[in-house]
Amino acid sequence: MLFADLTDFTRLVETVEPEIVYQMVRPLLDDLVSIAGRYGGAIQQVLGDGFMCVFGLDETLGDEAVRAVRAGLAMVAAGGPRVVRPSVHVGVEYGEIYVTPSWPPAEYGVWGRAVNLAQRLCAAAGPGEVQIGQRAYAQAGRPEVAALPDRARLKGITAPVLSHRVPAHAR
């Protein structure tokens, strides 16, 4: 599971005209969706300034966590500040999920702890960061960049969660 989100989207919406927000955000989201597809991810849901993506939905190859982590790293690289674009932050976790039919227009629903943890890790990631959950990190092996062990305090989860943070400057 991968969640990608734009940093400071609310501030942007509060300070810039809607048409300009769209002109800034749409090309970046198009790039992020393209990156997800390049790594074999299926977009499950788009939520304005971010989305949820599933790897291994149609075919399990055993490298889903590797592809999700690589996609996350590529996504944060696609965001600002090199161009006038918002920064991107990403959360990735690996685990069993339950896939169900969904309500239109989504094609399917996904349920499980990995879904929740990936979303919470994304929320905990700073601008330009990727937070990789413990199971995703173990499955993916060591990513090509330095990941710092972290004990993330995640909303709704009592105990700190072991994760691995790839800071913006590590790319």
Descriptive notes:
This protein has 171 residues and is α+β, with helices and mostly antiparallel strands. It has one domain (2-170): 2-Layer Sandwich (Alpha-Beta Plaits), CATH 3.30.70. Helix content is 36%, strand content 26%. The chain has five helices and nine strands. The chain has a seven-stranded mixed beta sheet. Helix 2 runs antiparallel to helix 3 (64-78) and helix 3 packs across helix 5. The longest helix is centred in the first third of the chain and has 21 residues, at 18-38. The chain is globular and about 40 Å long. The two termini are 21 Å apart. The model has no long low-confidence stretch (mean pLDDT 86).
Element-by-element helix/strand order: EHHEEHEEEHEHEE
CATH top level assignment: Alpha Beta
Please, how many helices?
A: 5
Helix fraction? 25-40%
Radius of gyration: 15 Å
Shape: globular
| Number of extended strands | 9
Q: Which fold name fills CATH's third level, the topology?
A: Alpha-Beta Plaits
In short:
This protein is of the alpha+beta class and 171 residues long. The chain has helices at 9-15, 18-38, 64-78, 113-124, 134-140, and strands at 2-6, 41-46, 50-55, 88-92, 98-101, 108-111, 130-133, 148-152, 161-166.
List the keywords.
single chain, 171 residues, alpha+beta, Alpha-Beta Plaits, 7-stranded mixed beta sheet, two-stranded antiparallel ribbon, 5 helices, 9 strands
SSE layout:
Elements: E1 2-6, H1 9-15, H2 18-38, E2 41-46, E3 50-55, H3 64-78, E4 88-92, E5 98-101, E6 108-111, H4 113-124, E7 130-133, H5 134-140, E8 148-152, E9 161-166
